[in-house]
Design goal:
alpha/beta, globular
């Protein structure tokens, strides 16, 4: 194996991933497992987390599943501390779980506001705190937080969602400065439009069934906004996360990586 490819062999490493039951989380779990990572799959949907872990184990990898409510600091502490106790190390923390939100500022209720803050922002903070308790003494580790392309381009109804994701980006940069001297890297992913269940409200009918015609219209509409002329898939984001976890990104921290097809190109 060449030195370059060796940096992508993560055998023996341990990852904790929230939101691993579907979409970007599931794609990341299977991708990391394919390069030797033992994956602890966390999701509030316990069955979905188990299905991800089961797929990994059946395909020669190593994974376990833990039901986790990311809005609960106690749940996240139990998840991360349990993974470290079981495996003796924590190399990768992927704070991936999140939910969409679409409502005009004037119409947002207190309940909605608190919910989006808890899931999209506070949970990432809890995950970072739990991870660095183990990574800092260990002297190594990689934390990947999922932000969003919504931080680059304002749009009506996305205020709450974009606010939380902007907070994730700044948390990432700040934490990178704090734990870098301890050998811990902290980076974020800001995906563009990705075709996963996260976006299903755009192309499902009243019963929640996916409408193939609406899916194609959705892909065409948002794909045409990107220079690469397509929307992304969960694997596109998982591949970016793999890079940030790998030796190929050993000199990267505090960065916001944007798998977005070119829809935003900030400095």
């Amino acid at each position: 194996m060449s030195d370059v490819l060796a940096g992508y062999d993560l055998s023996g490493q341990v990852a904790v991933l929230t939101g691993a039951g579907s979409g970007i989380g599931r794609a990341t779990a299977t991708t990391l497992a394919s390069v030797g990572v033992t994956v602890v799959c966390a999701d509030i949907d316990e069955n979905a987390a188990h299905l991800t872990a089961q797929w990994i184990n059946e395909h020669g990898g190593a994974a376990s599943a833990v039901r986790t409510d990311v809005t609960s600091r106690a749940d996240i502490d139990t998840l991360v501390d349990g993974a470290f106790a079981a495996h003796g190390r924590l190399d990768i923390m992927g704070n991936i779980a999140g939910v969409p939100h679409n409502r005009l500022v004037a119409e947002v209720t207190d309940e909605e506001f608190e919910r989006i803050l808890a899931i999209n922002m506070k949970s990432v903070f809890y995950g970072c705190q739990a991870a660095i308790r183990h990574m800092v003494p260990q002297g190594s580790g990689s934390i990947i937080n999922v932000s969003s392309g919504a931080i680059d381009t304002p749009a009506p109804t996305l205020a709450c969602y974009a606010m939380t994701k902007a907070a994730v980006a700044m948390l990432t940069k700040t934490l990178a400065t704090e734990v870098g001297p301890n050998g811990v890297r902290v980076n974020a992913i800001a995906p563009g439009v990705i075709h996963t269940n996260f976006s299903k409200h755009n192309y499902t009918d009243a019963e929640g069934n996916e409408d193939p015609e609406r899916v194609e219209k959705y892909k065409s509409r948002f794909g045409n906004m990107a220079p690469l002329r397509r929307v992304g898939e969960a694997q596109d984001v998982a591949d970016s996360i793999l890079f940030l976890c790998s030796g190929g990104a050993s000199f990267m921290t505090g960065q916001i990586l944007r798998p977005n097809g070119g829809t935003a190109m900030p400095w």
